[in-house]
Amino acid sequence: PSAREKTKNRSGVSGDDGKLRFTLNQDKSLGLRTSITATLSELAGETASVDAIFTVPTSPDTPYASYWGHMPDTVEVNGVTLRRPFLKTEMSKMPPGTWPLNNETWAANYIDYGETSIHATTSLPYLCGSLENAATLDDLKALKNIIGDLHWPTAAPASSYTYDYASQTMVGGKYCSFNETTNTENCTLSSQGFAYASCRVQ
Q: How far apart are CA 172 and CA 150, in angstroms?
């Protein structure tokens, strides 16, 4: 997560046990790290430092995230383990779409643009290892029951527009996606359609 620095100085007196006790709050809960350094007033060269990290549920625990977070990377549903969608910064190439939500920018991914395409690395077969490792429509329907607790991305901020999750499932020669907010499926996508990617973890 990126650094956001703001310094404040405080003074105090330790107890008989030599310990100084205080409460550290981060009222805005932005998923930041606070560095605390203690210095003895009579011995300026004697210091000790420790970091306090406030995490948020809407950011994953990865150096690619904008904020310190504890969003689960995986979850078990429908008898399989699914991975969360990818952040834009986790992609090796520019994805077909980027969607900001809760201070993170999430990537949209193609369903299957083809392994020889310049978009191959932003397609499900590459990201999931194979198209068969992408979530199925039934997986995504089962995910609906717990996605709110996971805080995985679903809706755009300040908008009623929401985004689907892509699946490997095909109906009538078209791929299906599932909207985790509205609980609706869309089986009209071509291989060049794009949405959030959730892969099955082996």
A: 32
